[in-house]
Design goal:
The chain is an alpha+beta fold. The protein has three helices and six strands. A six-stranded mixed β-sheet has the order 2-1-6-5-4-3.
Length: about 120
């Protein structure tokens, strides 16, 4: 039985958690784009994953917690928290609302509005 698109959106994030960027990209169309509220505009999925890969090198661990998720036939909207443990032992959280659009069962667009919340430094 094929997974629904909500499960596919979560699987994409699980690939990022384990630094499996090739599997994450394989879940996307060739023309997939990613927009974030960083003022840079939309990027091709490959470029976005390269940026994330550089960022991930600065963390000890990362985990996405999905707070809630809504979906229709080809779109998923979810609220999530990215929990980070940095290499210096500090912890951070990035809260986001994320939109996934699917085409033919593959992710074709991701839009993410994110803000970071500093948390306590590890003891």
């Amino acid at each position: 039985m094929e997974r629904n698109i909500g499960e596919k959106a979560i699987e994409f994030l699980r690939c990022l958690e384990i630094y499996d960027f090739s599997s994450a990209q394989a879940m996307c169309t060739d023309t997939a784009a990613v927009w974030q509220n960083d003022g840079k505009g939309a990027q091709a999925i490959g470029e976005s994953l390269e940026h994330f890969k550089s960022f991930a090198a600065t963390v000890s661990s990362l985990r996405y917690d999905i707070i809630r998720q809504f979906q229709n036939s080809n779109e998923v909207l979810q609220q999530q928290v990215l929990r980070l443990e940095m290499t210096d032992g500090s912890r951070r959280e990035a809260h986001a609302a994320v939109y996934f659009r699917f085409e033919g069962g593959l992710i074709d667009r991701i839009e993410e509005a994110v803000y970071t919340v500093p948390t306590d430094k590890a003891s």
